[in-house]
Amino acid sequence: MLFSAALPAVFLLFSALFVAANDPNDPDDDIRNFNNVRYTAALTVGEKTINVILDTGSTDLWLNPYDGVGWFEDTGVSHEIRYGEGATFINGTIGLADMSIAGHDIHHQAFINVSQIAGLDACGSGICGLVGLGFDSPTAGIEKALTDGGLDGPKIGKSVLSSIFDMNPDKGRFFALSLSRLGDAKDTAEASLSIAEYDPLYAGVQWLAKRLVYPPTAKSWRLLADGISVNGASVPWPAVSAATPAGHHVVLLDTGTTNILVPAPIRDAIFSAVPGAFLAKNSTLRNSHWSADRDVWVVPCDTPVSFSVTFGGQPYPLHPLDLTDLRTQVGPDGTTYKYCVGSITNGGTITTGGTDALYGDSFLRNVYTVFSFGDNTTATPYVQLMSQTNEWESTQDFAHVRQQQLAASPGTEIHPAELIHLFDGVEVWHDAASTTASSSSPSSTAKLAGNLADVDVAAVLGDATTPSKYVFIIIGLLAANLLIVLVLAVLGVTNLVRGRRSVGPTRVAYMPTRTKDDSLMRSSFEDRPYSDK
Ligand SMILES: *[C@@H]1O[C@H](CO)[C@@H](O)[C@H](O)[C@H]1NC(C)=O
Ligand SMILES: *[C@@H]1O[C@H](CO)[C@@H](O)[C@H](O)[C@H]1NC(C)=O
Ligand SMILES: *[C@@H]1O[C@H](CO)[C@@H](O)[C@H](O)[C@H]1NC(C)=O
Ligand SMILES: *[C@@H]1O[C@H](CO)[C@@H](O)[C@H](O)[C@H]1NC(C)=O
């Protein structure tokens, strides 16, 4: 833990170093990264320290330790919270207890003493609760439940943040987060949560643009995004809701969601623009994150996806390691295969209606984020984003790390089209026609890949009895592969040039990766999104 006594007493910065062990049961770490899937803060109640998920997508606090919270004042009011599409929920009664979190002691904080939990991380993973970092509302959550129960909801049902802000009336009503990325070249194990102060490492964030929540009356961390781009080409995002200004989409910045969730057509448009990527519909292959469907985009493991999102005209690049994940799976032939999947998945009903997308941890790792409930200059709540990812460095980093991941991973790697044929028994092709990206190079590569995949790869490679019939096709395949390599090389150079031109703060110098590879460790717990919106 990086905690300097030289900092002012009210300075509430917590950093934790998750080096080799990253032991989820070590109570001394305050902010923890569980395999890039969940981020938690240590909350102490009585003698107990509980790792609670940091969730900007909800407001209430709930606790579910194995052996109970211990003594607390029971209001007798029961309350239930449903998340995501609704099948996941917690249920229990609202209690009041003295607790401390992020260096603050809070008297009589309201929380839900969980008695029923469904579809969510049970305590077994080392995560035994959740703290909402969203907005108080008299018409929702614990506050409303208490009011409905005849108690003073606004007074005793405040969120953890409101409790802390009210205790520090001379300080700003904001918090700021930096989320670490395990498994990159820096293996950045540092994460920080600061309440009413900035992490000194990123103090410059206070001078950056204040991006107002959208709509301005929204009691949630939703922003209006301009768009997204893949390999430098913008991906059209047709307006979903008539209320959304043309050319924009509404995103919820949600630390309780592991990845990025978008409507299926947007996901398909994104990965269609990636050279050599193939879509497996309703597949037996598996996504690395929760998805509303079983469609899986298989991406060549060594292909860095250059992806950025734009807010207020400013692009924020994502680290390519946040766009694809390496998986292994035993095929129908009994052989273990390794393959890479796109990490942006289908949000289903979560991404229809008022929210077009959930930008979870795989976006938030790339920015230092200030979440302000408003101040004396800007009454509307706002967010400030400070980019933490340099395109050039992260592309270098990706090449190095992915190579190590592949070397360390068991299994055979085969062409995505061949893999999909093997697992699902269907022929797939990279549908160049549906490629919506306007840049010429990715789509021409897509056409090339399409030509390659139009050939029945499995038949070509599997049928040795009639070599003469296939020899030209095989030569064609080799030529196509060579061309893909050349095109990728050209794309690589393009990225390099763009990376050099890119603006933004200088990043920590490139350092060799340690051999330990956290990103290969798949968490045992589900990563369903936590969003009650
Ligand atoms: C939650 O608990 C309350 C009281 O214990 C009960 O009335 C309610 O039906 C429960 N909700 C669910 C979804 O089980
Ligand atoms: C809190 O929840 C635990 C676990 O469900 C239960 O055993 C305990 O009785 C509850 N405490 C109160 C005061 O309701
Ligand atoms: C997806 O595949 C499963 C079997 O693996 C099948 O039961 C289901 O109906 C399919 N869903 C769709 C939408 O095709
Ligand atoms: C706004 O609040 C800050 C402290 O939070 C204070 O320094 C500043 O003077 C205030 N500005 C106005 C215009 O009141």
TrEMBL record:
**Name of the protein in its database record:** Aspartic peptidase domain-containing protein
Q: Which InterPro entries match?
A: Aspartic_peptidase_A1, Aspartic_peptidase_AS, Pepsin-like_dom, PEPTIDASE_A1, Peptidase_aspartic_dom_sf
Q: Which GO terms describe its molecular function?
A: aspartic-type endopeptidase activity
The Gene Ontology biological process annotation of the record reads: proteolysis
Q: Which residues cross the membrane?
A: 470-497
- Domain Peptidase A1 spans what residues? 39-381
Q: What span is annotated as the signal peptide, if there is one?
A: 1-21
What's the family?
Answer: Belongs to the peptidase A1 family.
Q: Which Gene3D superfamilies match?
A: Acid Proteases (2.40.70.10)
Q: Which UniProt keywords apply?
A: Aspartyl protease, Hydrolase, Membrane, Protease, Signal, Transmembrane, Transmembrane helix
